[in-house]
Amino acid sequence: MVVKGIRQLADHLDISIGTVSRALNGKKDVNEDTRRRVLEAAERLGYVANQSGRALRKGSTGVIGFMMQTGHEITGQGDTFFMSVFDGVQTVFARHGLDLVALLCSSEEDPDAYLERVVARGFADGIMLSATRRVDERFALLDRRKIPFVALGRSLTDVGQPFIDLDFEGMATTAMTRLVERGHRRIAVLRPHDDLNLGHVFLGACRLVLAEHGLTLEDDLIFDASPNEAGGYRVGQGLAHHPDRPSAIVVLNDGSVTGLFHGLEAAGLTPGKDIAVIGLHSPQARYLSPRLTCFDLSLRDLGISLAETLLASMPAYASLYPNAAHRQLWPMTLIDGDSG
Amino acid sequence: MVVKGIRQLADHLDISIGTVSRALNGKKDVNEDTRRRVLEAAERLGYVANQSGRALRKGSTGVIGFMMQTGHEITGQGDTFFMSVFDGVQTVFARHGLDLVALLCSSEEDPDAYLERVVARGFADGIMLSATRRVDERFALLDRRKIPFVALGRSLTDVGQPFIDLDFEGMATTAMTRLVERGHRRIAVLRPHDDLNLGHVFLGACRLVLAEHGLTLEDDLIFDASPNEAGGYRVGQGLAHHPDRPSAIVVLNDGSVTGLFHGLEAAGLTPGKDIAVIGLHSPQARYLSPRLTCFDLSLRDLGISLAETLLASMPAYASLYPNAAHRQLWPMTLIDGDSG
DNA sequence: CATAGTCTCGTAAACGTTTACGGAGATCGG
DNA sequence: CCGATCTCCGTAAACGTTTACGAGACTATG
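Above: the input entities. Below: the structure tokens describing the complete assembly.
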């Protein structure tokens, strides 16, 4: 048997709905005996407070929305990237009875309009953004709507929004220094679409590092490619037939690395021998041959930080996370491989 | 400027909230002039009806939940798999103003309890399931709660629930016949955890096909492995050192194939030469060397069918999809590769 | 002109919950 | 034994929306 509505549950117990509600919500003014009775009955009859009614009254939904776009060509992240991050986010939210849902924006719908719609409806108490773009209306939009949010990926049009982004500057420094010290002079970069800001940031950092060594990043060595196997394959082919082939390449699209390897091999080049490859860690990375030299990070911990940063900006939870970082560049560690 | 609440919007227009609501919802009893005025003002002031209020009154949320579990070790599918399916689902839902969200169940929470909680709250009008298990409480639970749903993956405890599953029987027939005709006699199978029913179904089908040829599926040739690179790698190693090595393997875990290849290679075996490999299509499949012989399917179309099947079981939309399949085995086509 | 019909709109109830408020009974201190 | 305090609970308002209902102002029709 299943009971629908607090009214039915209250009638069933010969108690007023007020008391039932208080009992369920752990409020003070309720006898411990009746509380037990209520809890037991709710459990037995499968009563759970209606989401809409509760949200309407309380003014908060208990839901956090993580916006992502369907159709996988947009972001450069590997296949299990988000699921790992989510797992970290959840462990934090679970402590507060918050639920994480992914807001799925169709590839046919305008992301800005979608987000505005969802936020304006009051669907979620907080928003997580991903795949931030170089000019990203969404930051201003969320500011305007005054809803707490955090971005996975930095904002370039800076007005103080909270975010956590990968430390691309650190990555650029480590990668470029390593390559230069090993004698590389012509170094290429593979990044996803220019509109995503991670590639933009990374290139800037690379230029800085290279300049310190009196080197430059040649325009014809910057490859934009879809963050998938096909994109990597094409770049591999392109590299092989490049009139002035670089001796190394750094790959931001972790989904493209295996494609790149096979593209190179198909053209008779051996990664790590004919051309050094440094990438981002992905599940495949250590099973590639040669093993990929790559930057690793704890996605689960990243998710935890992401959640804490968001909660820190929500009035109801801020006091619990007094020293959560408002903005953070997430450190990555280099894992030695055989590819570069 | 942003307006909050239909009351404010109505006051701003010197109109009653009833009329405003009717205007926004395209109801009949409203002058076309005032409707335009309302629509324009709503657009300009950024008014969108509150989700909770609307859902509470209408008794439906306009939200469809796709349940999935975070932490990627459970299901064999990755982000791109789901994102492609979602894209298809969305194109159908968009026509009806329905929104798809992914209900993310933490790996630390019991999936059944999670689903019960979400459904009982009335969070969504319909549910999509994935990663169905051999004994899956969720089917009975959704039946009991009388909420429309569809599963991506069949139910084995059969009481007529709607689902779409991959045609593993067809796949088994095609794959096994092909291998047998090419002279293979000892054929292995790699599948994810036994608790997921796809592996169970597939094995059964394989046994049937093999029996027709007077062959059997040896117990020591059935490998259960985590649906990831590491799992595949270990099986590759295991195959290489198998006392009576099979000459072919069919792989259900698409996330494991590259790992399997590298595991084999690390042990000195060449896929497609020393051992035939047939798998499922994945973004990597055609960039592997040798190219993977695999079964492909249109994920986007699968999503469309999934959505239509669900809508067909929702009273409000059923009439629009009179001949949507209630249950469906989704066809897959074999793509010739070099691996087997 | 009277009546019926049409068009448009305002009013108010309802959806399921939470919570401020007040009241009834019990307990306690003097 | 009386007033004060405490414990527990019921009542009712409020959250923002949709919609059934009815009313007023026209128009058409006879």
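Note for the figure: Chain A has twelve helices and twelve strands.
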